[in-house]
Amino acid sequence: MKKLSERQSRILSYIGEFLDEHGYPPTVRDIQYACTISSTSVVDYNLRILEREGRIRRFPDISRGIEVIEGHEGRRPQRNTIRVPLLGEIAAGQPIPVLATEDFNAAEPMDTLDISTAMLKGERDVYALRVRGTSMIDALIDDGDVVVVKPTSEAKNGDMVVAWLKKDKEATLKRYYLEGTKVRLQPANSQMSPIYANAVDVEVQGKVIAVLRNVV
Predict the structure, then answer these.
(1) Model's pTM, two decimal places?
(2) Which band of pLDDT confidence, cut at 50, 70 and 90, is reported for residue 11?
């Protein structure tokens, strides 16, 4: 096996350290900043070498798709992952029809994602949706990111939820606030206005518990 360069050894150590602290892998940009590397392309080049040398395994479908292979650099085995169905898209902007049914749980998955159980905080009965729009940008959720959702019909004020607008048969991703007989669905974007609806016309279908950012 080829001897690693100092930079490659540092990257490998950092990935392991990040896993130990957070329970899920770093993004390429995390590695760039932590290891003082000039660009993400240089990080990617070195990750390809680490993968070729059998030190890591990469999963291109998700932004944090890196695991350290057992036995290298003293790392312990990768934490358990579970397979999460990607059911469709959710609007972070003006609400749009997301699925052909009001019930997300009845939808056929578009894809599946392997996600660390630690990242899901012990939750297992979850699904994922890809975000379209930028109304949650101030909550660090951008267009193209993936949110992991715990199915629930209950929400507390301030929770980020998948809300179904019954009259319009449309769904949206917003923060939930119950205000008397009305619900305010609040974007996390200072350039956008909240959506107001009668509480009886809003159905909470799930609460966001994790975000997979669509960054290199």
Answers:
(1) 0.62
(2) very high
